[in-house]
Each structure stands twice: as C-alpha cells, then as structure tokens.
Design goal:
The structure is a single chain. By secondary structure, the protein is mostly beta strands. About 0% of the residues lie in helices and about 45% in strands. The chain is built from no helices and 24 strands. A four-stranded antiparallel beta sheet has the order 1-2-3-4, with no helix packed on it. A four-stranded antiparallel beta sheet has the order 5-6-7-8, with no helix packed on it. It is globular, with a radius of gyration of 17 Å.
Length: about 250
C-alpha cells in the first residue's frame, strides 16, 4: 500500500466511490467531499458552500449526477462538487448511512427509520419499508436486478422491484449485525461484527467463510476481478477463492 492523500484536509475517510477508472469521490468525517480526477494522485476540495463540516457516508451516480449521503440528508451535484443542492423532501430521517442507485430509482438507508425511495432523481422521497422492519440500516448492494440492504441486528433484506417491497434473506447468518455487502459474480458476501458470510443463492441462505480472518468487525469490502478485500478492525485481508481462505495484506 502507499499513501494517496495529497490535498486531503484529514485522513479520516468514511466513504470512497469511483465514477470512472480515474474519477474518485471521498467522503470525510467532518470535512465533506473531496474529488480526484487522476485516480487519487491528488484531491480537490469539492464541497461548494454547502457540505463544509459534514460527515459524508456514501455516494451514488446517475448519468452525470453525483449523490452523496450525509448525516444531515442527501445532496446532489452535476459539476463534480462545485455546487451541491439538498434533495430531502419527504425524507423524514436525514441521518443517512448509505445511498444506492437501482436503475432509475434511488434508495437511502437511514439510521433508525429504514429505507426511503425516490423515483424522480431525489426531488422527493417516500418510505420504502414494506416487508422491512424499520431500523438502523447500514449498507446497500445492487446485484443484477436485486437490491440488498444490511441492518444492525437485522441481517439482510432483498428487493426485486427497486425497493417497492422487501423480504428477509438472513437464513444462516448467526451474526445478523451486517456492516457491509459485496458481490463477485453470483457470490454474495456479508461483513458482520464477527466475520464474513457468503451466499451462493441470492441470499436465500448464508454460511460463514472466515478462514484466516480474525474474529473482528468487517467494516467494508472492495473487489478487483476475483479478488475480494475486507477492511477489518484488525487490518485488511484478501481472498482469491470466494472467501475460502483469507490472507492479511497490510504491507505499508
């Protein structure tokens, strides 16, 4: 690993998302959004006059529009962060932990009020908790035509109609405190407070796949081809065999 923090005001990064191979957005704790056009070689302050001092938790992209979820609602920009506009009409809970785009639909995961849905580019939102127990939601995964949402002490729920309704898909999740989700092909992965689980049947059932991992919280995933990386409270680990074995990758 090597440091790529030139231009960042702080190293406390909560979220990363790539819009293209070279364009990356970073959400910082208490410092809003930064943007890189060269794969992270350097970063530019991208808060306009709006997101200064915000805690930014996630990003979603639709065409040329970037959406950011924050602990104070959802904002969108059409010019790489030169200007951000709040898009929170109908969003009763603005403590947003994650955001995702599913086709032309936007979904937000809130801290305590479940999921909200927008079908008009964020102009307005409605609660989308049919079949879902509203609680502190943590993360989204979009895989094929399905959307998955993870929850604290609530396992995984799946929607096959862009969030209109949800069904629990948590069978086999001994630890249902789900912190992150990822997919490689038809394999789904759930990071929990005690390790990783995998599903090979669209979430219908899960099994632990943590050989080589410490018993530790898994906070986020990143994939590159068939390589899956897990960021844990004990460092970064990778697997090349869908979680069959994990190896520490912390040099640097």
């Amino acid at each position: 690993w090597k440091s790529i923090n030139t231009g960042l005001s702080t190293n406390d990064v909560l979220a990363l998302a790539a819009r293209t191979n070279t364009e990356i957005f970073a959400g910082l704790y208490g410092n809003g959004v930064y943007y890189s056009s060269n794969g992270g070689a350097d970063w530019l302050y991208a808060n306009g006059d709006t997101l200064r001092n915000f805690n930014c938790t996630g990003f979603a992209f639709r065409n040329e529009t970037t959406y950011v979820s924050t602990r104070a609602g959802v904002y969108r920009s059409t010019n790489n962060g030169i200007r951000w506009d709040g898009v929170n009409v109908g969003l009763a809970n603005t403590d947003v932990a994650a955001i995702a785009a599913v086709g032309t639909t936007l979904l937000t995961a809130t801290n305590g009020s479940g999921v909200y849905r927008s079908t008009n580019r964020g102009v307005s939102w409605v609660a989308a908790n049919t079949g879902l127990t509203p609680r502190s939601m943590t993360c989204f995964l979009v895989s094929g035509t399905s959307a998955y949402v993870g929850a604290q002490a609530g396992g995984v729920n799946r929607s096959t109609n862009n969030g209109a309704n949800w069904a629990s898909v948590s069978s086999g999740l001994i630890d249902n405190n789900v912190l992150c989700l990822a997919a490689i092909g038809t394999n789904l992965f759930a990071g929990t407070s005690t390790g990783v689980y995998r599903s090979t049947n669209s979430g219908t059932s899960w099994f632990a796949t943590s050989n080589g991992l410490p018993i530790a919280s898994v906070y986020s995933f990143a994939s590159s081809g068939t390589n899956l990386f897990a960021a844990t409270e004990s460092g970064v680990y990778s697997t090349l065999n869908n979680g069959g074995t994990w190896s520490a990758v912390n040099a640097g």
